[in-house]
Design a protein that fits this description.
Blueprint lengths: L3 H12 L4 H8 L3 H8 L8 H11 L3 H6 L11 H12 L4 H18 L1
């Protein structure tokens, strides 16, 4: 039986269109080790592994381990809520939004 954390890693990786090889490069862990975690052969990864994978997949360690998101205590003003709803309704994916943010960070660094 597959370990739950392995299931989450595999589902997140695939939902982001990321190959196992790409995850290996981003985390510094061997593809074979990642595969063994995803398949449940290895079910007790180190906290270092979990931290690196969570960062590479853009989720919290808590989500990767528990499968739950923590409530954000930062209140969103109405403009942000409307903007997010508009983006969702327009068909913008989370990945596309992440890519935009990454591009914007790059552009800001370039302009400095």
């Amino acid at each position: 039986m597959k370990a739950v954390i392995g299931d989450r890693i595999q589902a997140l990786r695939k939902s982001r269109g990321m190959s196992m090889s790409e995850l290996a490069v981003r985390t510094g862990f061997a593809k074979s080790y990642i595969s063994s975690i995803e398949r449940g052969v290895q079910s007790n990864p180190s906290i270092h592994f979990v931290e690196e994978v969570a960062e590479a997949l853009g989720v919290s360690v808590h989500y990767l381990v528990q499968g739950e998101t923590k409530t954000i205590d930062i209140p969103l003003d109405e403009d942000w809520v409307e903007l997010v709803v508009e983006a969702m309704n327009s068909g913008l994916s989370k990945q596309q939004f992440r890519e935009y943010l990454e591009f914007n960070r790059w552009r800001l660094r370039k302009d400095e």
